[in-house]
Amino acid sequence: MKTSHYKRPSWDEYFIEIAHTVSKRATCDRGRSGCVIARDRQILVTGYVGSPIGLPHCDDVGHQMKKVLHEQGHATMHCVRTVHAEQNAICQAARLGISISGATLYCRMTPCRVCAMLIINCGIKRVVCEKKYHAGSESEQLFADAGVQLEYFTDELMKYENQ
């Protein structure tokens, strides 16, 4: 009898890997991100970073950068041309009439504050991130306050150009 050394990925590893594949469709090179929303081990919807339907993409016309000044005094740069992967997945569910209440959301980095608020209001109960995002502490607190379980594969900070 042959013994296999292959180790099947956990469900979390499986869905994070699919989020990686989804991120390859992203149209902003500043942190190509993808998202998978699943429930009961089934994919409900996916989303990736991209401009609203019919509008120009960063990869084609460049970034639309805004500087954000944080309470602590430091500034970060953000591209505002795109809709985040989490937002696009939530919009996809709404367009298709798919309930995502009680689901788990898988993404590459800590969702931003706006995404966190949408995730909470959609009834998503668990968020699994590959890495941390530099401005994610506010979202971490929102999730904790709302009772949304937040997990990371690593405590490593997601890095990309012009952050």
- Overall mean pLDDT: 91
Overall structural class, as computed from helix and strand content, comes to: alpha/beta
What is the count of β-strands?
Answer: 7
Main beta-sheet annotation: 5 strands, mixed
Counted by DSSP, the helix tally is 5
Question: What sort of overall outline do the alpha carbons produce when their principal axes are compared?
Answer: globular
Please give the share of residues in helix: 25-40%
The whole-angstrom Rg is: 16 Å
Proportion of residues in β-strands: 15-25%
Oligomeric form:
single chain
Instruction: Write the element-wise H/E pattern from the N-terminal end onward.
Output: HEEHEEHEHEHE
Gap between N and C termini: 53 Å
Unreliable runs, pLDDT <50, ≥5 residues?
A: none
Largest sheet, spatial ordering of strands: 2-1-5-6-7
